[in-house]
Specification:
It contains 14 helices and 18 strands. By secondary structure, the protein is α+β, with helices and mostly antiparallel strands. It has three domains: 161 residues, no CATH class; 82 residues; 130 residues, no CATH class. The strands form six sheets. It has a five-stranded mixed sheet with strand order 14-15-16-17-18, covered by helices on one side. A hairpin with a 4-residue loop joins β5 and β6. It is globular and about 65 Å long.
Length: 440
């Protein structure tokens, strides 16, 4: 078993996700590399300043522009979207996921509501299947509510919507493309390469799912090892047994983080990176192309895996809740608040909006964990650099930072935008570069 401290755990998880020590990918090729390294790109339809998935990639990829992930998924066909927890994943993984889709269809595990859809809307499912064969592509919007049976499902208000979702979920159809985020469906054989229209063997699928889940988390608890082992009872015991086998085989290693009760798992292939980080070195493969997160603050998407759903508290001691679904009077910070990563710590958050009538990016509020950072010149410069890049990413022509209360931070952010310059120091030199470059 490998024992590490919390600083090493934090840097490892950030680095595995491509967030630290700085952006190491560029452009559309880099976007593909980032999406593969991340394992999953969670999708969300909300478009406030930008969609969460685009902010996620902006924080990892230089010269990323909104929608590049869609080009890779729906034009180049290198990725596909799937799942009740909606995420994009590499298309070459499809044989493994087809095992999961079949298990869902047959009721081996998973969401019982899927089986109810099949039973309650069998006629609509057959109808949608025939229409897809006839038309090629179909969207839920193709069917008027007046001509359909109204439903009260979390997946749609029309029987046609549930039928299409069911066929997509069990793998008979895939997302051909998206129209303003709305799925346009097509039969799977018209979207995926014929060589991938098969199932892997059961044991291979189980091992794949566990390794993917562990890689996604960086350090993963036994209780959330893979989508193949949901619930309790025999399936849970089978999952734990397979974990033991994979540790014995070297596919996984056990890691004890000082201060954490539970033993976690990491990929066996990540053992060397963990050892390097423990000695204060940056893995060479993680060398940033331009700035580090010490030199330029990075803003995390609301659904970024490293900080969403309580993980920010465990990893950073940072309370973060996405308040977009809270009533306004219950919000502590704001509607679309994003965490701010400086070095390897979350040091604050800001709320904002994009005024599309004036094309102005408006900061509605900014809150620091430590008020002393409001007087820190190094942080002020890094924050200004982060906002300057973010404004370019959004395509805004102006920045309104009057809501920033700290005079130094407000002045630096405004000056950087007015001068239309962002300082980009030379990238760090890789393996022999010490980690502790941030002023505390």
């Amino acid at each position: 078993m490998l024992t590490i401290d919390i600083d090493t755990a934090r840097r490892f998880i950030l680095g595995k996700q491509g967030l630290w020590p700085g952006r190491r990918w560029r452009g559309i090729e880099g976007t593909e590399q980032a999406m593969r390294a991340m394992e999953y790109l969670q999708l969300d339809p909300l478009h406030i300043i930008a969609r969460s998935q685009d902010i996620t990639l902006h924080s990892r990829v230089l010269a990323y522009t909104p929608g590049l992930w869609e080009e890779l998924a729906y034009q180049q066909r290198k990725f596909f979207d799937w799942g009740g927890w909606l995420a994009v994943r590499p298309i070459d993984e499809l044989p493994y996921w087809r095992v999961v889709m079949r298990r869902e269809r047959d009721g081996d595990y998973g969401d019982s509501r899927i089986r109810r859809m099949a039973a309650e809307h069998a006629e609509a499912i057959d109808e949608m299947r025939a229409i897809l064969h006839e038309r090629g592509t179909v969207s839920n919007r193709d069917f008027e509510m007046a001509s359909r049976i109204r439903t009260h499902s979390y997946r749609g208000r029309k029987d046609s919507a549930l039928a299409l979702y069911y066929l997509w979920y069990i793998g008979e159809v895939m997302t051909h493309h998206r129209d303003n985020f709305e799925r346009v469906y097509a039969l799977t054989e018209t979207v995926a390469p014929a060589s991938l229209l098969r199932e892997s063997d059961e044991a291979g699928a189980d091992r794949f799912l566990i390794k993917k889940d562990v890689s996604f988390s960086g350090l993963s608890r036994p209780s959330r090892v893979a989508e193949s082992f949901r619930g309790y009872g025999e399936s849970d015991r089978a999952g734990k047994k397979l974990l033991g086998v994979m540790v014995a085989d070297g596919d996984l290693i056990e890691v004890q983080v000082e201060g954490w009760k539970a033993v976690h798992y990491a990929l066996g292939s990540d053992a060397e990176a963990l050892r390097e980080l423990s000695t204060g070195r940056v893995p060479q493969a993680w060398t940033p192309l331009e700035t580090t997160t010490t030199e330029e603050v990075v803003f995390l998407a609301p659904l970024d895996h490293v900080s969403a759903r309580g993980r920010a508290k465990v990893l950073f001691g940072f309370d973060y809740i996405w308040e977009v679904y809270k009533p306004e009077h219950q919000r502590r910070f704001g509607y679309y608040t994003l965490p701010m990563l400086w070095g390897d710590r979350l040091v604050g958050r800001f709320d904002s909006k994009l005024d599309r009538t004036t094309n102005t990016f408006v900061i509605l509020g900014l809150w620091l964990e430590d008020e002393a950072r409001g007087l820190d010149e190094a942080f002020a410069g890094a924050l200004a650099a982060g906002f300057a890049r973010f404004v370019r990413f959004l395509g805004a022509s102006k920045l309104d930072a009057t809501a920033i209360r700290e005079p130094l931070l407000r002045q630096r952010v405004c000056s950087s935008q007015e001068a239309n310059i962002t300082p980009f120091p030379q990238p760090i030199s890789g393996r022999d570069t010490p980690l502790k470059r941030r002023k505390s």
